């Protein structure tokens, strides 16, 4: 019985050690990761002709997730979210989803600019890209 207890104790200790080693070896320091990239495509022409703006995008070297705060700075691979600004308005909205498409409806007729920023969990910009397009939307009456 004493041998069985010692064997189980050794197995338990080895399991804890192995788990700790595996956990440490699977984390890549954020400093060594490639910089995040953002690729935004022009609006899809079909929906745009109907006044709906579909802006496909993709990100590389960062995951878009609903996490925030200073502790998220050390998560690897990197996490972040999007800030989206339309026509240089003084406000933006945050997108924590992974839809890979920004969709805008009800845009007035004329030229527009959409700024998409990939930011870290605390809002500091990793990278950004602006897209301009002409919307055939309805003319706004003054």
What can you see in these coordinates?
The chain has one domain (33-135): Immunoglobulin-like. The protein has helices at 2-25, 45-49; strands spanning 37-40, 53-60, 63-64, 79-86, 93-95, 101-104, 110-120, 125-135. 20% of the residues lie in helices and 36% in strands. The model is unreliable at 14-27 (pLDDT under 50). The chain is built from 2 helices and 8 strands, in the order αβαβββββββ. A hairpin with a 6-residue loop joins strand 4 and strand 5. Strands 3, 4, 5, 7 and 8 form a 5-stranded mixed beta sheet that branches. A 3-stranded antiparallel beta sheet has the order 1-2-6, with no helix packed on it. It has 142 residues and is an alpha+beta fold. Residues 1-18 form the signal peptide. Keywords: Signal.
